[in-house]
Design goal:
By secondary structure, the protein is α/β, with parallel strands linked by helices. It has one domain (5-165, 177-226): Uracil-DNA glycosylase-like domain (Uracil-DNA Glycosylase, subunit E, 3-Layer(aba) Sandwich). It has eight helices and six strands. It has a six-stranded mixed β-sheet with strand order 1-3-2-4-6-5.
C-alpha cells in the first residue's frame, strides 16, 4: 500500500521523550505471552490507500498490539473487534490482523490514530497530541476523497475536529455532542459517525457490543455509497 510521505517520516520520530522511552522499554521487556516475538517499538504508521472514502481514527497504538506488530490496530482485542466489523461491511479483505505480514488489505478505507506511539496507561499527554497532530493534518489534506469519518472514542472525535480547525476547514458550532451512533453531516460533504472505542474497558463491560460496532460500519457503508445524511441524525440500531 502506498503511504503518505509523512507516514514514512514518522518512523524516525522522536518528538516526545516520554513516549520514546516507553515504547522502547516495552519492546525490550516484552510480556510473557510474546516473549519469543520481536517487537516493533517505534511509531506505528497509518494503514490504507490515498483514495479511501472512509477514514477511521483511533487513539494510539497498544503497548503489546501495534507497538509489537508495527501495524495499527493489530495484535490486540481492539483490533480484533475493529477488523471483524470492517470485514463484514467490505472495508477489509479479512476479519483479523495478527501481524504486519498476515495479508490484511483495507478496501476504500484508511486507518490512523491521534497519537502514533504507545503511551503509558493508554493516556497521551496534551503536548504529545500536539506533537503528533501535524501527521494527522498532512493525512487529512491528502485524503481528498474521504466522505465518512469514524472516530473511535471521544478523544479521537475531539482530535478530528481540532485538526479541521487547524486546517482552517469549516466546523459546526457549537461542536456536535459525542455519542455512539450519532451522525453529523458537515458542510464539505463529510459525514462523521461517532463510535465508542473497541477497548476492553468498553467491550468487556457491555458498553460496546459487536452489534453496536456493526451498526457504525453498516451506516458508514451506506453513507459512502449514498452520501445522504441529516445533521444530528441517529441511525436505527
Amino acid at each position: 500500500m502506498a503511504r503518505i510521505p509523512s507516514q514514512l517520516e514518522i518512523l524516525d520520530c522522536r518528538r516526545c521523550d516520554r513516549l520514546v522511552s516507553y515504547r522502547e522499554q516495552v519492546a525490550h521487556d516484552k510480556v510473557r505471552r510474546f516473549r519469543d516475538k520481536e517487537y516493533w517499538g517505534k511509531p506505528v504508521p497509518s494503514l490504507g490507500e490515498l483514495d479511501a472514502r472512509l477514514l477511521v481514527i483511533g487513539l494510539a497504538p497498544a503497548a503489546h498490539g501495534g507497538n509489537r506488530t508495527g501495524r495499527v490496530f493489530t495484535g490486540d482485542r481492539s483490533g480484533d473487534w475493529l477488523y471483524r466489523a470492517m470485514h463484514r461491511f467490505g472495508f477489509a479483505n479479512q476479519p483479523q490482523s495478527v501481524d504486519a505480514g498476515d495479508g490484511l488489505q483495507l478496501i476504500d478505507c484508511y486507518v490512523t490514530a491521534a497519537v502514533h506511539c504507545a503511551p503509558p496507561d493508554n493516556k497521551p499527554l496534551p503536548e504529545e497530541f500536539a506533537n503528533c497532530q501535524p501527521y494527522l493534518l498532512d493525512e487529512m489534506k491528502q485524503l481528498r476523497r474521504v466522505r465518512v469519518v469514524v472516530p473511535l472514542g471521544w478523544i479521537a472525535f475531539k482530535a478530528y475536529f481540532a485538526a479541521r480547525k487547524a486546517l482552517g476547514w469549516t466546523n459546526p458550532w457549537p461542536l456536535p455532542v459525542f455519542g455512539h451512533g450519532t451522525l453529523t453531516a458537515l458542510d464539505d460533504s463529510v459525514t462523521v459517525i461517532s463510535s465508542f472505542h473497541p477497548s476492553q474497558q468498553n467491550t468487556q463491560t457491555g458498553r460496546l457490543t459487536e452489534a453496536m460496532l456493526d451498526d457504525v460500519f453498516r451506516q458508514a457503508r451506506e453513507c459512502v455509497e449514498t452520501q445522504v445524511t441529516r445533521k444530528g441524525e441517529k441511525f436505527p440500531s
